[in-house]
Amino acid sequence: MDRLQKVIAQAGVTSRRKAETLITEGRVKVNGKTVTELGVKVSPDDKVEVDGIPLEREEPAYFLLYKPTGVISSVKDDKGRKVVTDFLPEEVEARVFPVGRLDYDTSGAIILTNDGEFANKLMHPKYEIDKEYIAKIDGIPTKKELNQLKRGMRLEDGKTAPAQVKMLSADGKKKTSIIRLTIHEGRNRQVRRMFEALGYNVLKLKRERYGNLDLRGMNSGDIRPLKPHEVKYLNQISIKK
Q: Which of 2, 19, 92, 184 gives a 20 to 30 Å CA spacing to 199?
């Protein structure tokens, strides 16, 4: 038996907090009866409706995809481009969706799940889940510029949080460098905009790590189920913070 708002959130309808609002507004029915109290618990056999639409509950599913460049972080694309769910094995019937997004021209680690509550926790800024990127840029930043990244960059949507930064290599002839950058925010094209604020263009970008998940043993386009301890760890992060 689980609380009604948790069941709604896990079905991917909305966050648990917004599910509570749906309940108190009288927009949720259990076995045909409107429920307005938050303490109600339901079993897998109970029929839940939100705004008259039956809730389809599935077993929670969690996957890690090594997203290639040129793939949309969505479940469908009106332009017919490849999307992240195209990489799921045929036998997977769960209706999963990406947690957050990676830009079309960025590769790397992205989580797919049908657990809406889990996804909302991972994307919430207060949980500060680390995301590690490897960027190839068209220049060689100075130590002063790297320190600017570490302290936080002033962007049009506000100053970024402090980042972990390390230059991995520099090519004096080609005037390019490889830099590891770890952030916990998830703003749109944030890493690229941070470098652009210093006057550098990102030539290639890959997200190497998301929380405790990395790409070791995976090739571009590979997908694997998350192990129970990996899901548990990510859930525990949100409990601790």
A: 184
